[in-house]
Amino acid sequence: MKYKNTDINLDGRLLRKIEKKKRRLDNLRPLKEDVVKRILEDIRIRHTYHSDAIEGNTLTLQETKLVLERGITIGGKPLKDHIEARNDANAFNLMINLVKDEKPISQKVIQELHRIVTEGLLEDAGKYRITNVRIAGSATPPPSYIKIVSLMDGYIKNITNLELEPIKKAAFIHHEFVLIHPFADGNGRVARLVTNLFLMQNGYPPIILKKEDRGKYYSTLQKADKGNISPFATFIANAVNEALMYYLSSFIDEERLIPLKEMADYAPYSQEYLSLRARQGELDAIKIENVWYSSNRSLKSYLKRVK
After folding, report:
1. If we measure between CA atoms, which residue out of 264, 258, 266, 306 comes closest to residue 286?
2. Are 219 and 86 contained in the same domain?
3. Do 165 and 38 have their domain in common?
4. In a 3-state reduction of DSSP, which class is residue 294?
5. Residue 221 belongs to domain spanning
6. Which segment of 40-54, 135-149, 211-225, 255-269 scores lowest on mean pLDDT?
7. pTM of the prediction?
8. How many CB atoms lie within 10 A of CB 145?
9. Which helix (H) or strand (E) holds 198?
10. Does 293 lie in the same domain as 147?
11. Is 56 left (phi over 0), alpha (psi -120 to 50) or beta?
């Protein structure tokens, strides 16, 4: 599918939030390397956990952390789950290096990401599928394997040539990849990495698509399959907004993330009300491992707006 900016509708207020945060982040550059390293290590662990959990991996966040940081084998958990975690973390590292080296997205890059993601899990790691497949629960069957190379050629050209705003193009990059479904397995994990590669190449922090949002993730992708990509683009935009909040919290005191329970001690509202407004998207907030956080800047902006 090809799109124009006008084909993808995003809420103007959400876009303005993203644009303001992006400008604030850009104004801080160059960012302190030690802080960036610490942030990316935390994101690497959480991205690995959530990306794998979406696909059915049974490791918890803490177990994923132990596997990656200490090389510990978790008793009672499948070996496959450990391999997936290590592979995805290694692929995240490659993505960071690709950004540093200013390597453009190419078929070679995508195949290398897939090779790392599925190493030790698939015999054809890094190779396009050579059979036709069906996706359980999907009404749109992937294209014939015979068309994969030509479709991926077009995909790479679209990444380069389509004149889409970055958030909208990120949604296109993710959806088009899973629509083509170039590999026998591992497409979702690679799609999330390629999307992040594009975002980071354009100055955005990497996003985390959370396992708690799995239902919304798949339902919006299914709508995109039928030609309406706007809900999925909104899903991606919300993840970008959260990623920017998380990044800025490490550099600007007013942007520091505060649990809503703590914020309620001095805000004119209860924790329950703040959580409600966060869920409604009225209070700019981020949910990290089932705890809602916001910032003093976001609270001030909300109070100003409601007055």
Report:
1. 258
2. yes
3. yes
4. strand
5. 5-251
6. 135-149
7. 0.95
8. 16
9. helix 187-201
10. no
11. left
Q: What is the mean pLDDT of residues 262-288?
A: 96
Q: Give the CA diameter of the chain.
A: 62
Six-digit token string for 43 = 């994101």
Same domain, 222 and 187: yes
pLDDT over 70 at 85, yes or no? yes
Together in a domain, 278 and 245: no
Q: Number of structural domains, the chain?
A: 2
Query: What is the edge-to-edge ordering of all strands in the sheet holding 291-294?
Result: 258-259, 291-294, 286-288
The catalytic residue positions are 181
Residue with the two structure tokens 């390293």: 37
Residue-wise pLDDT for 16-42, tens only, equals 999 999 999 999 999 999 999 999 999
CA 133 to chain centre: 25
Q: What CATH code is carried by the domain that includes residue 156? A: 1.10.3290.10
DSSP secondary structure of 63-76: HHHHHHHH-PPPTT
